[in-house]
Write a structure and sequence with these properties.
By secondary structure, the protein is of the alpha/beta class. It is 36% helix and 22% strand. The chain has 13 helices and 18 strands.
């Protein structure tokens, strides 16, 4: 079985065809142009169109048996396409919900238009709706309910029962959301590759959950660095860690927890630096070439020096985040690892990985599927289909490390 897995990131849409033995048969990423606007979601379908075209140009003989979608959360999208991204600042409320403060802020922002809105989706569910007409909300695990919403919590935070009715029902990761509609299939135009009317469309999960599965950060004592537009250092534990600067949530692994330190702008800052450099030079820079030049900067190029500073600052931020988690683990008598897995755009360059290893003092691994959200999506579906008995079993068999970066002895 081959799955087309799609992840909507903050600034790009990624897709891969993944086989049931965890192999990435084709991969493509396209950057989004509207991601800093309220119209962000309106380019997701057209970007998926182009990504699918790219994928099957890479391998024209590929056939897929289903499609699975994940994305960043708690991004919110109205049924008409108005978008509030996950990283837009909102007024905090007295609730454990990650969504309700954003829903309340979205309601205030839309004003009278809110009353005309039929449905409020989270990010990936909006694209699922455009593909299938289904209206769902992906709940990673029952233990996540208080991080999402209940009718009682809505009312406690000043939202009405009518507001609550706008929220689609919960479904689990890996569930069949619906079938690809004839209209959607006709736009995607890849019949020869299995993208046809009636193709099963499955639910992934919020991208950080999918990434934890795709890096196998499901075993107590494992650590991963999710490094994209934003960044998060995640630590799997047997019990919940509580400390200043930590976000602690249930793990998708039964009975386990995930403690994390969020670094919301590390990747975004470097992307802004790259765009500034391109505007000044009047040309586009390939990511790998630019990183090479920045790492080799010797102080004679002010722009490259700025980029090198940003990369080093990112590594220092990661080091500090690791230190917070290590300290919390020590206070709770929990062993802390000396290695971590890294996923996301930053892990695609060996030099950046080595810099992080040197500055953090951690051994760093990259997996065969470096965009771990996509493998995590596939794992959810494979488990639901009975190919594996559990998410933990599937991750232990399908997540494979491909590269290792060891801190240099003379690194500070």
């Amino acid at each position: 079985m081959n799955l087309l897995c799609v992840d909507i990131g903050t600034s790009s849409l990624k897709a891969a065809v993944i086989s049931e033995d965890g192999k990435v048969l084709a991969f493509k990423r396209r950057f989004l142009l509207l991601y800093i606007t309220e119209n962000a979601s309106r380019e997701w379908f057209s970007t998926l169109q182009n990504v699918i075209k790219d994928l099957f140009e890479i391998n024209k003989d590929l056939k897929v048996d289903g499609l699975c979608v994940s994305g960043n959360g708690p991004t919110l999208v109205t049924s008409t396409g108005k978008t509030m991204l996950w990283n837009e600042e909102v007024q905090p409320l007295k609730t454990k919900s990650l969504f309700i403060p954003r829903i309340a802020a979205f309601k205030d922002k839309l004003g009278a238009e809110w009353n005309e809105i039929k449905t409020i989706f989270s990010g990936p569910e909006f694209l699922i709706n455009r593909l299938t007409d289904a209206e769902v909300t992906i709940l990673p695990h029952e233990r996540y309910l208080e991080a999402y919403w209940t009718k009682t919590e809505f009312e406690k935070c000043g939202l009405s029962s009518e507001d609550f009715e706008k929220m689609p029902p919960f479904v689990a990761p890996g569930e069949l959301a619906g079938k690809l509609t004839h209209k959607a299939a006709s736009f995607l135009t890849a019949e020869d590759n299995g993208i046809v009317d009636g193709l099963p469309v499955y639910c992934g999960a919020p991208d950080f959950i999918s990434a934890l599965v795709g890096t196998n950060t499901l075993v107590p004592g494992t650590l991963c660095d999710r490094a994209g537009s934003s960044e998060g250092i995640n630590f799997c534990t047997e019990k919940m860690l509580v400390a200043e600067g930590l976000r602690s949530l249930p793990s998708i692994a039964e009975g386990k927890f995930n403690a994390s330190v969020l670094l919301p702008e590390t990747g975004t800052k470097f992307a802004a630096f790259k765009q500034k450099l391109e505007r000044e030079a009047g040309r586009e820079f390939r990511f790998h070439d630019l990183i090479d030049d920045v790492i080799m900067s010797d102080g004679t190029n002010a722009s490259y020096d700025q980029g090198k500073y940003l990369m080093m600052q990112t590594a220092l931020d990661v080091r500090n985040a690791v230190a917070k988690l290590r300290s919390a683990a020590k206070d709770n008598g929990i062993h802390f690892p000396d290695s971590m897995v890294i996923t996301g755009g930053q892990c695609l360059h060996d030099g950046w990985n080595q810099m992080k290893a040197d500055i953090t003092g951690m051994v760093i691994y990259v997996t065969e599927c470096p965009d771990a959200e996509l493998l995590g999506d596939a794992i959810f579906v494979f488990v639901k289909m009975g190919l594996f008995s559990s998410i933990e079993e599937a991750a232990s068999k399908l997540v494979k490390k491909s590269k290792k970066f060891v801190p240099h002895e003379d690194a500070e």
